[in-house]
Amino acid sequence: MPESSIEKRFSMISTEPLNSEANFAKDVHEGLSSKPKTLPSIYFYDYQGSLLFEEICRLPEYYLTRAESEILETYRDEIINHLEKDTQLVELGSGSSIKTQLIIEQFLDEYKKAHYSPIDISKKMLKNSSYSLLNRYSQLHITSVAAEYNEGLKHLNLENDKAKLIIWLGSSIGNFHPDESTEFVKQLSQQLEPQRDYCLIGFDLRKDRKILEQAYDDAEGITAQFNFNILTRINRDLGGQFDLHNFRHLARYNEDEGRVEMHLVSEQAQQVFIRQLNNHYQFETDETIHTENSYKFSQSQIDNLARQTGLYVHQRWFDSQNLFTLVLFRKV
What we know:
- The strands form 3 sheets. Strands 1-5-4-3-6-7-14-13 form an 8-stranded mixed beta sheet, with helices on both faces. Strands 2-12-9-8 form a 4-stranded mixed beta sheet.
- It is an alpha/beta fold and 332 residues long.
- It has helices spanning 3-8, 21-33, 47-56, 63-81, 100-111, 123-136, 149-153, 178-190, 209-215, 222-238, 299-308; strands at residues 10-14, 37-38, 88-92, 114-120, 140-146, 164-168, 198-204, 247-254, 259-266, 270-274, 279-283, 288-295, 311-318, 324-331.
- It starts with a helix and ends with a strand.
């Protein structure tokens, strides 16, 4: 397909990223100076981190992608049947848009044209995935937003005269603390018009510890590479001197909190210098850097989330093993 044809159907809004170098430096210093040590999981997702996550999604242990894809394959016609023909498809954290492609394709089959607005912090990933979709579908238009969720939300009203489906897949909501996810879904709710707009969110359900921990500690070590990528990024962008061989990847299910936690564990007492921060950071043996949480949900938690955010559950779908659910919300 001629590139000019694609260019006419593609635009990108690039905001000033909240995870700029200055903020990255500030967050790294604060996180490594705290007790316990932490690093925000958003910094996983540079271009290399995004590619690693796409690889994780194909792993046999990582059931989430297969379960969610099964739901989309089985029920995408039901999802699309709820929508008006001019609905704008908006996705948070779009990545490669592989799963969302199922919704786009069904929408095109039903209504012949579609407008898709992916939001992602990786500008390179956004452009690559958008061009791939535009090459495949000649009646697709894409307005992409290179931004964090909150910044991207400010741009969702660009076409407020159109109906919207806000798509948030992969149980990314589980990376938020419950109070934060409630507050964020309230913001989503404010973007919706009653009786017109929908929000489709994927939730990973509570299940056996072994299944959960294997999903975040695969045999090939790809998830470990993804976890280590945050240290690689500190070394590259901030002049860090982390020796990755002195740390190990740890994934564990915290049953009391209902979440899988990812940590990087110091194998020895050591100090690490970060040149741009002009600071040494001390680690004790077995001290951890807490890098990510992934909360798992019960049906009652999902119902409570809806009640607290001005939404109601319009419909929900499950995979064949009841590992995962996709929930379609509307505004009360």
